[in-house]
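::Encoded backbone::
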Amino acid sequence: MSKFGKKKKGSPAISTASLPDIVFMLLFFFMVTTVMRETDLQINSPSLPSASEVKKLEQKSLVTTIYVGQAKDAKYGKKYNSIQLNDKIATADDIPAFIINARLNIKEENHPRMTTSIKADKQMSVGTLTDIRQRLRDVNALKLSLSTHKGGTISE
C-alpha cells in the first residue's frame, strides 16, 4: 500500500475574480443604452375604453401616438378633449405637421406601414376623434389604432 494516491486529471477551477467587473460593466451598459419614456404626459393618464377583440401592435418603431384626455394644467380647462402631440398640448390642426415630421424620421419604404395610435380617455367626445381622423386623412395617414384594455391589462 502506498501513502500517495493518484492525482486526478481534470480542468482547473474557473476563477471568479473578474466577475464583479463584468457585472458592473453590463450594468453600466444597460444604464447608458436604456431609453426611458420619450414623452411626458401633459394630460391625465387616459382611462382607456374596454374592447372584446384586442390585437397587439407589431412594430413599435413605426407607431406614432396621439394622446387625448383631460389636461393636467388648469390653463387648458377641465374638458376631456385636450390633444397631446409629443410633449405639448396641441389642436387638431397641428396633427398633419406632427405626422409629416414623424415621417421624416423613418425610411420612405416604411411610410405605408406607419401606424397612428390614439390613446384616448373613454370620456372624450366623438367630435374630437372625428377631427383627428379627418386631419389624419388629409396627410394620407390611414392606418389607425385605438388603444383599449382587455381584462385589466393594457393592450394596443
